[in-house]
Design goal:
By secondary structure, this protein is of the alpha+beta class. The chain has a domain at about 60-120 and about 155-185: Rieske Iron-sulfur Protein (3-layer Sandwich), CATH 2.102.10. Helices cover about 20% and strands about 25% of the residues. It has one helix and ten strands. The strands form three sheets. A four-stranded antiparallel β-sheet has the order 5-6-7-8, with no helix packed on it. A hairpin with a 2-residue loop joins strand 9 (about 160-165) and strand 10 (about 170).
């Protein structure tokens, strides 16, 4: 016959219960630490990417993109083109396409305008019939050279830095032209020198006729 073991003493029972409690506590603590680590990692990844991103992708800020052969743009015409954003990813699809306007004033003389209005950034449209850029949002109007014609904008259209390389029209596409970066640091398109103050009055002749209340002499200049 099998010999029955004596029941454990109260001390042994207490020891076994304590071991089970320690094992369960250790397991739950490990699960909690693992969950906290996952949450911390999930929060840290976007923060680190935000901080390190500009450093790791610094060369994209000076990316030159080809808009096409320079010979494709005819003198006196303004053409709508699109290029791929240097900061895009393969899964961005059509959202990575950035539009711009190329103005060829003379052979070899190109100006590339950002499509955004200088007022609040709405996309402007080019009307060849009137030779004007017009903003549908707030009525901003620009001449063919990009200078301001009327409306809320306080300056002309922003322009991209451009160059001709191996017969291709290239632009610095790494930065959208604004007043805060190099692409928009140039003068307004069509801007002239500072206006001269009005000249002082040189002479005023006395009116000698009762019928003619004016003066035939020039009073300013």
């Amino acid at each position: 016959m099998d010999e029955k073991l004596p029941p454990p003493s109260p001390e042994e029972q207490e020891q076994r219960l304590e071991e089970e409690r320690v094992t369960r506590r250790t397991f739950l603590m490990g699960v909690g630490i693992a969950l906290n680590a996952l949450v911390t990692l999930a929060l840290a990844v976007p923060v680190v990417a935000f901080v390190v991103g500009p450093v790791s992708r610094r060369r994209e800020y000076r990316s030159w993109v080809a808009l096409g052969d320079a010979s494709d743009f005819k003198p006196g015409e303004t053409t709508l083109v699109t290029f791929r954003n240097p900061f895009s990813d393969p899964w961005d699809g059509d959202t990575a396409s950035v539009p711009a306007y190329v103005r060829c004033a003379d052979p070899g003389n190109f100006t590339v305008f950002a499509i955004n209005c200088a007022h609040l950034g709405c996309p402007v449209r080019w009307f060849a019939e009137s030779q004007l850029f017009m903003c549908p949002c707030h009525g901003g109007v620009y001449y063919a050279d990009g200078s301001r014609a009327s409306g809320p904008p306080e300056r002309g259209l922003f322009t991209y830095e451009s160059k001709i390389e191996n017969g291709k029209l290239m632009i610095n596409a790494g930065q959208l032209p604004t007043l805060r970066n190099r692409a928009g640091a140039g003068p307004c398109p069509g801007a002239s020198a500072a206006p001269k103050p009005p000249a002082l009055v040189t002479r005023i002749e006395t009116c000698t006729s009762t019928e003619d209340r004016g003066t035939s002499a020039s009073t300013i200049g």
